[in-house]
Design a protein that fits this description.
Number of strands: 14
Number of helices: 7
Distance between the termini: 50 Å
Mean pLDDT: 89
Largest sheet: 8 strands, mixed
Low-confidence stretches: 16-38
Helix content: 25-40%
Number of domains: 1
Protein name: Protein trichome birefringence-like 39
Keywords: Membrane, Signal, Signal-anchor, Transmembrane, Transmembrane helix
Main location: membrane
Order of helices and strands: HEEEHEHEEEEEEEEHEHEHH
Strand order of the largest sheet: 1-14-13-10-4-7-6-5
GO molecular function: O-acetyltransferase activity
Family: Belongs to the PC-esterase family. TBL subfamily.
């Protein structure tokens, strides 16, 4: 009963917080207020890069997928027969200010000898692949090396000493195999030792928190040495992210490391989210062009904002949720070589390139 009451209390709290934050999205100037987010910094500063529209740009994409050696098979939609390319040709245009263009030479020079790590699930892999391709397209003859061992992968642009890392972890908190089975530990981050020493950390998590049945990779949830067969997933997500926030507070030196959190990446399995109940992402060929996405703000976004409001160290929020919700056209669909219907990951070139344009702007803007 105690856990049930705790869950109900947290959900009520998050609902109230959601109402509070909705006004931020409706700001007429597109500027996010920071009254309720003392530590969370919107990556665009006072210029809100995250409210805008998608515009067709014939100069896109930012790279040729056939020329990039770093695209994971599941994101290489052209290789697996997607017949259209229009999804590659949309550029994000903020309402209130221009978004700085991506310049890989500038990136390589200013981050010479630096280390950038993406930490999270397959959406982090999506973004990691994207940034590697964006840089590679500017210096195609510059030597690179790729190393993968267990959860850690790296790509090095050897001429510049720039290293991109990917640390795969679906939950950020630990998932351990013990005598009772697979245990998701909401208050433990032993794997955080691998994240130290980076100049930039870009975190992401959410999708695996929703998995149930045979797709669920854990048997028990543990908190404070107590095992639970299950828990409200938003409550579990909140607790896990709170542990991550504690790790940031204890382990990050802001003078040495910039921390980013990628907003919730949406899925497009249910067409009712964009007022087409009979549809999914399959055969969608253009973005949603309305000003307000019918599906509304995901509760997971509310949880992320609540946690980020309590982080004592600076965390830059890449608030890509709304701009990504508009891109119902940009998923692999059935052209991933892995999943029959994939409305959760993103084709490359594609949407994650915009995430990295925003990351680049935040680092150098």
């Amino acid at each position: 009963m105690g856990l049930l009451l705790q869950s109900l209390f947290l959900l009520i709290l998050l609902t109230l917080f959601s109402r509070q934050t909705k006004a931020e999205h409706l700001d007429v100037w597109g500027n996010a207020t920071t009254t309720h987010f003392p530590s969370r910094k919107l990556a665009g500063g006072r210029c809100n890069w995250f409210r805008g529209k998608w515009v067709y740009d014939a100069s896109y994409p930012l790279y040729n997928p056939s020329s990039c050696p770093f695209i994971d098979a599941q994101f290489n939609c052209q290789k697996y027969g997607r017949p259209d390319t229009e999804y590659q040709k949309y550029r994000w245009q903020p309402f209130s200010c221009p978004l700085p263009k991506f310049n890989a030479l500038n990136f390589l020079q200013r981050y010479r000898g630096k280390k950038i790590m993406f930490v999270g699930d397959s959406l982090s892999l999506n973004q990691f692949n994207s940034l590697a391709c964006m840089i590679h397209s500017w210096v195609p003859n510059s030597p690179t090396s790729f190393v993968q061992k267990d959860a850690l992968s790296s790509i090095t642009f050897e001429e510049y000493g720039l290293k991109l890392f990917l640390y795969r972890t679906a939950y950020l908190v630990d998932l351990d195999r013990e005598k009772v089975g697979r245990v998701l530990k909401l208050d433990s981050i032993k794997s955080g030792d691998a994240w130290r020493g980076m100049d930039v950390l870009v975190f992401n998590t959410w999708h695996w928190w929703t998995h149930t049945g045979s797709a669920q990779p854990w048997d028990y949830i543990e908190e404070r040495n107590k095992l639970y067969k299950d828990m409200n997933r938003f409550v579990a997500f909140y607790k896990g992210l709170t542990t991550w926030a504690r790790w940031v507070n204890l382990n990050v030196n802001p003078s040495q490391t910039k921390v980013f959190f990628l907003g919730i990446s949406p899925v497009h399995y249910q067409g009712r989210d964009w007022n087409q109940p009979a549809s999914s992402c399959m055969k969608e060929r253009e973005p949603f062009f309305g000003l307000k996405y019918p599906g509304g703000t995901p509760m997971a976004w509310v949880v992320v904002n609540k946690v980020l409001s309590r982080v004592k160290k600076p965390v830059y929020f890449l608030d890509v949720t709304t701009l990504s919700q508009y891109r119902k056209d940009a998923h692999p669909e059935g052209y991933s070589g892995v999943m029959a219907t994939d409305c959760s990951h993103w084709c490359l070139p594609g949407l994650p390139d915009t995430w990295n344009v925003l990351l680049h702007a935040a680092l150098f803007g």
